[in-house]
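Teaching assistant here, posting this on the class forum so everyone can see the example we discussed in section. The complex has two components, and the goal was to see what a joint structure prediction looks like when all of them are supplied at once.
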Amino acid sequence: MSGLNFRRLGAVARKEFIHVLRDPRALGIAIVLPMIMLMIFGYALTMDLDRVPLAVWDQSRTPQSRELVARFEGSRYFSVVARPGSYGEVEGDLARGRTMMAVVLPVEFGRRVASGRKVQVQVLTDGSDANTTTLAISYAEAIVRNYSQEILVEKTQRVTGRLPALPLDLRFRAWFNTDMESRIFIVPGLIAVIMMLIAALLTSLTVAREWETGTMEQLISTPLRGSELILGKLAPYFAIGMVDMLLSVLAGRFLFDVPIRGSLLLLFAVSAIYLVGALSLGILISAKAKTQLLASQFAFVATFLPAFLLSGFMFDIGNMPKALQAVTYLIPARYFVAFLRGLYLKGTGLTELWPECLLMVAFGALMLLAAIRSFKKRLA
Amino acid sequence: METVRTQALTRRFGELVALDQLTLAVEEGEIFGLVGPDGAGKTTTMRLLTGILEPSSGEAWVDGLHAVRDAEAIKDRIGYMAQRFGLYPDLTVQENIDFYADLYEVPKAGRSERLERLLAFSNLTPFRRRLAGNLSGGMKQKLGLACALIHTPRVLFLDEPTNGVDPVSRRDFWRILYQLQQERVTIFVSTAYLDEAERCNRIGLLHQGRLMACDTVDGVKGLLKGSLLEVRCESPRRAAVLLRAGKLGSVALFGDRIHVLAEDADRGRAGVEAVLRAEGLACHGVEVIEPTLEDIFTSALPSGAA
């Protein structure tokens, strides 16, 4: 980095700004693409289970059975969409995906409940999606258990003449994300994934384009240095990246209603560091690939997939196999996801998040250095 | 003083020897032409001399600086115009020149005068706000030249600068080069056009990576041993085939004329006339002519040249 000449750096930055500003399509992509991704993932990627399509086959048709069915109907987690009259119909609905679960109440349901005897409630599920099924079963279990408990309480009261007290009373409260909405959990992580992808994509073309069009040969015949070229090229994309960051944070706050508990200043400061790392990674890829197509494809695969799958954004790192867990330490998005979630949901700052921040600084510095060193003033 | 000097400069790409033991010297203020067909090693030579490609062996000096050890220092003193148009099509003429002026740290004082002079010099003044991508081929080359000249280089390297440029623009381009020569700028230009090579003070004939000859244009022509005969006759195509079979010397067809390089003018003339008469082809004339560079390439170089 010795002898950094700001006039040459400025010249490169100015030229890059002109490239961006004269190419409205590229500028549009740089601004619109992250917003589209935020919309798509923000709305589609809900991990909350709502209104599971349910089939109910009430063979009993008694006040007791209707009471249980009413509880399913009243739950926000279920939506009764079919009333089959045979196992054939139950199976057909599950197979076609019209329903995800079926509750079958036997003919003797009402009679046995009334007489205080044990009765079976059959629940059939489409087990294809194991996660969703497990969640749906636990909701169904809770409804049935509640009803069963109430029957027991009523019976005891009838026999003893007083209301029995249950020995344990579970009181539950979520400390952060108080409403337990997955949106609030997803959006901060999503910002980390999007920023990684957009930043690397933005810069992945810049160096490769100069090689492809032949301008690089002209550039390397001048006194221009690697540090001047790379820092100059980073400048406009850094500006665009920060605008993207600002738009993402605004969309998160006002569109998805995700509150920010931590410091905004810290949020943007750390984002800037992460952005430098991601932009430099894009430049590094671009310098190595030397063609725009290869560079953009590689940038997509090298940033999006790890950031999406291995950062803890989609899948909990703690549940991954040990070997894969080790790999996640190499994914910078992992630290940014953790940082953003901490800052957004818990309002934590540097006191708690300094290791993540430190690692992101290391990532940024390493990538920037690698990008600068990747620039060789020689052909072949 | 020698501005460019090479000593057994060699560059290999794997098995291919792109440049083989090039040794030459170019004097200050000279227009030196590196002449040869495509693939002769012209671009490789340019890249080695401008410090953007490392030689496999051998050495080179530009303006007294070593091409490998002082590559970065060389870059301040030279102007280079690559074969491919290396400017930004989405920047205007003036923005391109300004960009290079900043890269070379051209002092702000006197810069706008220099810019105006360059624009006027290259007839680009009316187009200064036009995007470089919208310029014609000839104007693009002149813009490339203006960018390479903004820092007043000591040596100018031009790699096939007029390739694909119309004849009028080519003449303009050369007029600019002659003006530069008045300012003692050394110009090292490569070309595959032989008429263009004739405009240089001295030329080096490059063929398959080897320097075949290096001298003034007349000196190179003098290397042609024997006399060059120009034959005008009936059915020149067939006649050329017959003359070649007649083993009179090297034979080349130039449109409707045949050039025969004979060891001796009179014996050659007699031989040509005998061959044509034997086949019943009318001979319109056989004259001794001054060789052109094209004759050098077609006759003097080993088979496969030009």
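For the discussion questions: The interface with chain A takes residues 13, 47, 50-54, 71-72, 75-76, 78, 80-82, 84-91, 95, 98-100, 102-105, 147 of chain B (CB under 8 Å). The CA atoms of residues 269 and 286 of chain B lie 7 Å apart. Think about how each of these relates to the inputs above.
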